[in-house]
Amino acid sequence: MKEFQLIEQYFQGRGPLRKDVVLGIGDDCALLKPAERKFLAIACDTLVENTHFFPDMPAQALGYKALVVNLSDLAAMGAEPAWMTLALTLPEVDEAWVRDFSEGFFEAADYYGIALVGGDTTCGPKSITVTVQGLVPEGAALTRHGAKNGDWIYVTGTLGDSALGLDILRGTVDVRPEYRQALIARHYHPTPRVLAGQSLRKLASSAIDVSDGLLSDIRHVLKASGCGAMIEVSDLPLSQGLKDCVSEEQARQYALCGGEDYELLFTVPESQKGALQTALNQAGVRFTCIGQISAGTQLKLKLHGEPYEATFTGFEHFK
């Protein structure tokens, strides 16, 4: 199958229809008409075989994940997903693989209402690059640089499951059979907190998605905001599967350093705590207070009030 046949068969004309797409796939550029008094939020992410995913990762799961990891960035800014482009690089055309990939990709696109408006296909080592664009009301975007001394630190969902799921796939850990598929699913099919991000507009003082690990990502917030923080490790939200499959100490390390949770980490002033409860309850998202922003620049970890040290800090490219 040739390049343009591939595009027409599996990508063109699929996904949700949006009135703000004047011209989509099929020309040199897409033509889009953003709403007035909205800022455009843009994020881009690349997944490379053997770096971000194993060669045997199911194509449907890869298509789904390739999109939702970008949607998680939009969620962290409080943006509404609108449009996206896809650059797909393959060593050869495996039509069955492309079919399954596109099914997973458009499963996420349809659910979150984001339209594919362009992209590229080329021959080379397998990699997927997705660029997403979202809309956020003027003055309402969440950023990393607004945290202030005294703000409370929260995280959505639970932490550490994706990293344990990855170790199951690596074959480096055995878990109880009843939890195996659920933990792998947390790695293959993360949930971007899009609605929660929008609910945090004008409530959160800062926000970031947890992609490289809690400790790594909170340091980005502290650096941007020029402040420090204290995290109470005993308050980290852990799933029953994580607690039942590894030791208590291993569970803490997964939660602090594992990465690819794609939950939201955010800070909220004392004055907004009541409104936060209402907003996220309406969004149907679990959230947990895990610490507080402090003066200075240090990140301090405590376990039941005593100093605690993590053995790893999070994922980094180009170490």
Set out the fold topology.
Elements: H1 3-10, E1 21-23, E2 31-32, E3 38-48, H2 59-76, E4 80-90, H3 95-112, E5 115-123, E6 127-137, E7 152-156, H4 161-170, H5 177-188, H6 194-199, E8 206-209, H7 214-225, E9 228-232, H8 240-245, H9 248-257, E10 264-268, H10 273-283, E11 287-294, E12 299-303, E13 306-307
Parallel strand pairs: 4-5, 9-12
Antiparallel strand pairs: 1-2, 3-6, 4-6, 7-10, 7-11, 8-10, 9-11, 12-13
Could you characterize the architecture of this molecule?
The protein is an alpha+beta fold and 319 residues long. The protein folds into two domains: 3-137, 2-Layer Sandwich (60s Ribosomal Protein L30, Chain: A); 152-306, Alpha-Beta Complex (Phosphoribosyl-aminoimidazole Synthetase, Chain A, domain 2). Helix content is 35%, strand content 25%. It is built from ten helices and 13 strands. A seven-stranded mixed sheet has the order 8-10-7-11-9-12-13, sandwiched between helices. The protein has a four-stranded mixed sheet with strand order 3-6-4-5. The chain has a two-stranded antiparallel sheet with strand order 1-2. A hairpin with a 2-residue loop joins strand 12 and strand 13 (306-307). The longest helix is centred in the first third of the chain and has 18 residues, at 59-76. Mean pLDDT is 93; it is low at 315-319.
